[in-house]
Specification:
By secondary structure, this protein is α/β, with parallel strands linked by helices. It has eleven helices and 15 strands. This is Alcohol dehydrogenase.
Length: about 350
């Protein structure tokens, strides 16, 4: 199979031929239809993620067609179009049995702890637990964009913070997570305000229905968000994993507000000093979140269908496998709105 192989940190990935993956006994092998390129992949590319051991195939936002099944796989057959969350759970431990697959102690994470989907094929273990059927007619590129950004935002908003209609959502960082959170919040009947430092992203947020936008380069961005919402947001999403946005997200809350840490704190940002006096005085709540269990895909697909939700603005570029290195390097600086998705694995 063709794959993009990470052999040195912060170096171009090597486009090479690798053996096809072995099929797990309870899993499947997928022919990859599309794979998103995410800031989390950038963390792996820079060497900030200790789980990544070189050489390695990154990529964790994927969908595909089943081309091989193991003898203990019961739900899937060749030809099925499926999607998987980026946390592959064992399905057997107490946490999995309780529905909390994202904290499975035996989890595997494609692109980090096991080979990922910057390749034409990928093996998925424990397939009966970890796969969901794609809705008929869904664009594979859109499905891949769902794989981390939309699913993580959906679980943050509904599985953690319980965002309600009429509430204010503050979004700190308008990348893929931030854009997903805005689109989902509007479908849920909430109002959203977006903060970022890139004018192009603020313009995109306004075009996609943000009730207000905050240019975080100017003045006190958290106070500006509080003023724009008449006293603060009910829920704040930190979508970048940076100290400044984490602190601003907490400070932008109204009393009894809820903050969800979605951005991945890694490397030098793994430990962040926070204004705990704000947490104390406002009696706020802070939630962590990471990914989404596979069993929650039907609820997400139901909302997309019922609301007629158009998620296509998420896709900024459809690229080739050989374009991955340039896309990863672009995360070193401000990036334009939308995400890049690999749809051509032949070159």
């Amino acid at each position: 199979m063709k794959a993009a192989l990470l052999t040195r940190y912060r170096a171009p990935l090597e486009i090479t031929e690798l053996p096809d993956p072995d099929c797990p006994g309870d899993g499947v092998v997928l022919e990859v239809l599309a794979c998103g390129i995410c800031r989390s992949d950038w963390h792996a590319w820079t060497g900030a993620d200790p789980d990544v051991k070189l050489p390695h195939v990154p990529g964790h936002e994927f969908c595909g067609v089943v081309v091989e099944t193991g003898p203990d796989c019961g739900r899937w057959k060749r030809g099925d179009r499926v999607i998987a969350p980026f946390i592959l759970a064992c399905g057997q431990c107490p946490d999995c049995q309780a529905g909390n697959q994202t904290i499975c102690a035996n989890q595997a994470v494609p692109g980090f702890t096991i080979p990922g989907a910057f390749a034409s094929r990928i093996a998925v273990p424990h397939a009966d637990t970890n796969l969901a059927a794609l809705p008929e007619g869904m664009d594979p590129a859109l499905a891949a964009a769902l794989g981390c950004r939309v699913t993580t935002a959906w679980h943050a908003l509904t599985g953690r913070a319980a965002l309600r209609p009429g509430e204010w959502l503050g979004i700190w960082g308008f990348g893929g997570i931030g854009m997903s959170a805005l689109l989902l919040a509007r479908a849920l009947g909430a109002r959203a305000v977006v903060a970022d430092v890139v004018p192009e992203k603020l313009a995109a947020a306004r075009d996609l229905g943000a009730a207000a936008v905050i240019d975080a380069r100017v003045g006190d961005a958290a106070e500006a968000m509080r003023e724009a919402t008449g006293g603060g947001v009910d829920v704040a999403i930190e979508a970048l994993g940076l100290p400044v946005t984490a602190r601003n997200a907490l400070r932008s809350l109204k009393k009894l507000g809820r903050m969800v840490q979605v951005g991945m704190p890694a490397g030098e940002h793994a430990a962040v000093e926070m204004p705990w006096d704000v947490l104390y005085s406002s009696q706020a709540a802070i939630y962590g979140t990471r990914g989404m269990p596979a069993h929650r895909y039907p609820s997400l697909f139901a909302l997309i269908e019922a609301a007629g939700l158009d998620l296509s603005p998420l896709i900024a570029r459809r690229v080739k496998l050989s374009d991955v290195s340039a896309e990863l390097a672009a995360f070193d600086g401000p990036t334009p709105p939308g995400v890049a998705v690999i749809t051509d694995f032949t070159a």
